[in-house]
Automatic annotation (TrEMBL):
CDD domains: HTH_LacI (cd01392), PBP1_SalR (cd01545). It holds the Pfam family Peripla_BP_3. It comes from Gallaecimonas pentaromativorans. This is LacI family transcriptional regulator. PANTHER family: LACI-RELATED TRANSCRIPTIONAL REPRESSOR (PTHR30146), LACTOSE OPERON REPRESSOR (PTHR30146:SF153).
Length: 345
């Protein structure tokens, strides 16, 4: 199928229909991914779209069918690396399916968060939204979206969805924390510290539970462990590391609830002249750029946030189309052993 086309002129839906030998309505059905279109017809239309470099006008598509081709990513997370990875994955899925992405940061714990979410959906005419922690964990937000019949997908910490209110992408934080702790215990460490993240995030409790489960599995007295509250931030790691380094009988290993905390702990060890991993083993969580930019690079749990986001958006777009065959996915972060951990001495 070849046809000369003026590169200075933008292709129209009429041009695509003419080149593919189908009606304008058929082109529209293919572009909008409507069901019951023959594969042969879809292939011809998409070949014409590619040859003409046709770019569907999102606003026109929405007005023509009273349908929005925008989805939203609503979040409240101070971790810039996490947010960037999520955006990248969501954008990948949107581009694959002809949708646009609106990114809207929220303060999840304001009194009017439900009103803000609804106003954002209405103002931007969103077809649906993806929510990440802690926003995805707020019952009032979830209940409101369900009552208003707004399609949404939640990214949540856990190995099983807590309900059937929406499609979910689950992250097995507990299992991953268990593996990291098991890794250190297997290398002979018995006095361990765990640095927690924000209490508002369910992942903090899940990762701590995995840590404690591994101690129990290895029959290590939990009273020997040092568990300190904190936040998912570099400064929290610095503060907590200084606290444990001042102990008369300090731990031989630190497990941090994320890589930023671990990087802060590593920084504090350097300031105090404590060698890593010779004097103190340190492990993080998530495999963020922090884990690869420190020296030594951090042992961590690889959490593929961009792929998690891509799958979340794919679930959302399927839900928008009415396809509810698969409404739950589970990701299990994998242990990445690097140079910040070694056998106990």
């Amino acid at each position: 199928m070849t046809q000369a086309f003026n590169a200075l002129k933008s292709a129209t839906i009429n041009d695509v229909a003419r080149l593919a030998g189908v009606s304008i309505k058929t082109v529209s059905r293919v572009i909008n991914r409507e069901p019951n279109v023959r594969e042969e017809t879809t292939a011809k239309v998409m070949a014409a779209v590619q040859e003409l470099d046709y770019q569907p006008n999102q606003a026109a598509r929405s007005l023509a069918g009273f349908k929005s081709f925008n989805i939203g990513y609503l979040y409240d997370n101070p971790n810039a690396y996490y947010v960037i990875d999520m955006q990248r994955g969501l954008l990948t899925a949107c581009r694959e399916h002809g949708y646009e992405l609106l990114i809207h940061p929220c303060d999840a714990f304001t009194d009017n968060i439900v009103e803000e979410v609804l106003a954002t959906v209405k103002k931007a005419r969103l077809a649906g939204v993806v929510l990440t922690p802690p926003l995805s964990e707020i019952p009032a937000v979830v209940q409101c979206l369900q009552e208003k019949q707004i399609p949404f997908v939640r990214v949540l910490s856990g190995s099983q969805a807590p309900d059937n209110l929406s499609p979910c992408v689950m992250v097995d934080d507990r299992g991953a924390a268990f593996e990291i702790t098991h890794h250190l215990l297997a290398m002979g460490h018995r006095r361990l510290a765990f640095f927690c993240g924000d209490t508002e995030h369910h992942s903090t409790a899940e990762r701590q539970a995995g840590f404690e489960a591994a101690l129990a599995k290895h029959r290590v007295d939990a009273s020997q462990a040092t568990i300190l509250p904190g936040s998912y931030a570099f400064d929290s790691g610095v503060k907590n590391a200084r606290q444990v380094l001042a102990l008369a009988e300090r731990p031989s290993a630190i497990i941090a609830a994320n890589d930023e905390i671990a990087a802060g702990a590593l920084f504090a060890c350097r300031l105090e002249g404590v060698r890593v991993p010779e004097d103190m083993a340190i492990a993080g969580f998530e495999d963020s750029p922090f884990s690869r930019q420190t020296w030594p690079p951090l042992t961590t749990a690889q959490q593929p946030n961009a792929e998690i986001a891509r799958q979340a958006a794919t679930l959302l777009l399927a839900d928008i189309r009415g396809d509810k065959r698969n409404n739950q996915l589970i990701f299990s972060p994998k242990l990445l052993e690097r140079d910040s951990t070694s056998a106990a001495r």
